[in-house]
UniProtKB/TrEMBL annotation:
The keyword ATP-binding applies. Its EC number is 6.1.1.10. It comes from Ruminococcus difficilis. Zn(2+) binds at C129, C132, C146, C149. The chain holds residues 1 to 517 of 651 of the full protein. One of its GO terms (cellular component) is cytoplasm. Its main location: cytoplasm. This is Methionine--tRNA ligase. The keyword Aminoacyl-tRNA synthetase applies.
Amino acid sequence: MCKKETFYITTPIYYPSGNPHIGHCYTTVACDSIARYRRMQGYDVMFLTGTDEHGLKIEQKAAEKGVSPKEYVDEIAEIFKGLWRFMNISYDRYIRTTDDYHIESVQKIFKTLYDKGYIYKGEYSGKYCTPCESFWTESQLVDGKCPECGREVTEAKEEAYFFKMSPFADRIEKLLTETDYLRPKTRATELVNNFIRPGLEDLCVSRTTFKWGIPVTFDDKHVVYVWIDALSNYITALGYLNDRYDDYDKYWPADTHMVAKDIMRFHAIIWPAMLMALELPLPKHLAVHGWITFNGQKMSKSLGNVVDPFILGERYGADAIRYHIMREMALGSDSSFSNEIMINRINSDLANGLGNLVSRTVAMVEKYFGGTLPSERQAGEFDEDLINEATSLRAKVDDFIEKTQLQNALAEIFKVVSRANKYIDETAPWILAKDENNRARLATVLYNLLDTIRIVATLLSAFMPTTMPKALEQIGACEKCASYGNADKFNVLPENVTVKKGEALFPRIDVEKEIEE
Ligand code: ME8
């Protein structure tokens, strides 16, 4: 048997400094959809997510609550895991940076960089933004505040270890400008102009003023800077320099790291520099998406303007939320969150578009044929166009998945949903049903609709993993029929397919009532 090709995808590991919100959901749901799609394509997938549990911010949050940092992160990590269960996230591994094996690997990574001469001891004097866990020089501040989040910075002066970044500047610039590493590539210019061209400054990689971090083994006054600790997760979770796992050779380099623009710099510059210093292969792609905003501001725990995914999911269904956030956000741009837009989209695309297509088709098979189609067929006008649209869909979705453009993948799928709904109007099955001589034509029309739904629901099951199996069950598609391998073929459902009426996949939401509440 030939070995399956591997596919390794990661989300950022999130700070458990507050409960997860719809922003975290976006990245995780996007990665989950890609992971599911790749599994469907036959890849051996490793999908990693987790929590980034060290650092001053966590230490402070725990102190505010009067609990130990470990007690604090234990509680929030469970809330993250609970949300991922609720959103049907199929991660293969969950890393917590407080896990022993990760700590052991990070200590070895730090020591290796030190032994190779890339880490040296010096003194740090400058500004520190605690919410971003970022060091800044005076010249990088904007109006004296953190250039990333606009919040106050504090004075930091301490003995520290530094990571020499300059030896990697040229290679990193080439990585960003000449390769397909960064997606979208348009972001390369800001990185090169703001960080690389002015001279890559050495990075302060240890702290002595707080304790909640991984101790530097050879100088235990110091804890490892949280970003060195966090970025390492992508390899420690595979077993790099630890015995907990043995997957490094199999899955590294990662195929896709997905992050939002707030942490692009760390993944586009610092992480490649670390890997270059360790002489390890670089990840293939860094997909950078924009922010979900609320009233024009980034939705964030510390700004307090968060939308709770548990509440939305309970109300509208986890799949509807998954669909909405992926359909709204174009890779690279921000997307403003609005309840009204979300409800309208759920109603138009899911309830009226897809849900209605499935329920109407199934209802007609029941009404006109008692639930089971006869074998007679008669081809007619509009069939070819529908069949072509349906069978060419998979290649288009493949292409957008390859480019990490989920919004476009969904748009293509929903074009076929619209095409199928139009086919119902064009062929008018209710008129065909009036004449006994049209039985074969009526059966053909309904079969074509069912087989189109099979293709659509199969491809969509990566994006909406809870509802699509129900749609496939309603149209009588067995597991084999509903496979990726069959998603570019027509006439796959059995000739005498039997449908099974079920509940509405996406109940319609009353916009006015919802907005008033
Ligand atoms: O940065 N819109 O953790 P974090 C879209 N621990 N995505 C959003 C978002 C929003 N409004 N808010 C958060 C950290 N995200 C580090 C990462 S990785 C080695 C260490 C998502 O909890 C998005 O993926 O602040 C963003 O990059 C990430 O959450 C930041 O999560």
